[in-house]
Amino acid sequence: MSKTIDQEIMAKLLFEKYGKVALSDDEAAQALGCSVKTLSKDRGNANGIPFTRRNNTQKGQVMYSVTAIAKVLVENESKVI
């Protein structure tokens, strides 16, 4: 399968599990298998998953789209030889 199809499938699975198109820090960390602290550190270093903030304000809740999470999961997949 192509990466695009894999991303679509992964995004659909995430949407079905959480019932929304954007996940909070806690939900994203759970889906990615990492800590909220890791996500926060990556945001601070500007090298993590694209995110948005609710109400487009500096203190707004951080939200990650299920498509962005799916893309990262598929693109960082490793093949075992």
Annotated CATH architecture: Orthogonal Bundle
Strand content: 5-15%
* Average pLDDT over all residues: 91
H and E string = HEHHEEH
Helix content: 40-55%
CATH class: Mainly Alpha
The global form is globular
Query: How many individual helices?
Result: 4
Strand tally, please?
3
Q: Cα-atom Rg, whole angstroms?
A: 13 Å
Compute the number of structural domains: 1
- Measure the end-to-end span: 18 Å
Oligomer: single chain
CATH topology: Arc Repressor Mutant, subunit A
- Which residue ranges are poorly predicted, with pLDDT under 50 across at least 5 consecutive positions? none
Widest sheet, order of strands: 1-3-2
Biggest sheet layout: 3 strands, antiparallel
Quick structural gist:
By secondary structure, the protein is mainly alpha-helical. The chain has a single domain (3-75), classed as Arc Repressor Mutant, subunit A, CATH 1.10.10. It is built from four helices and three strands.
Description of the structure:
- The structure is a single chain.
- The chain is mainly α and 81 residues long.
- The protein has one domain: Orthogonal Bundle (Arc Repressor Mutant, subunit A).
- 53% of the residues lie in helices and 10% in strands.
- The protein has 4 helices and 3 strands, in the order αβααββα.
- It has a 3-stranded antiparallel sheet with strand order 1-3-2.
- Helix 1 (3-18) crosses helix 4 and helix 2 packs across helix 3 (36-44).
- The longest helix has 16 residues, at 3-18.
- It is globular.
- The two termini are 18 Å apart.
- The relative contact order is 0.20.
- The model has no long low-confidence stretch (mean pLDDT 91).
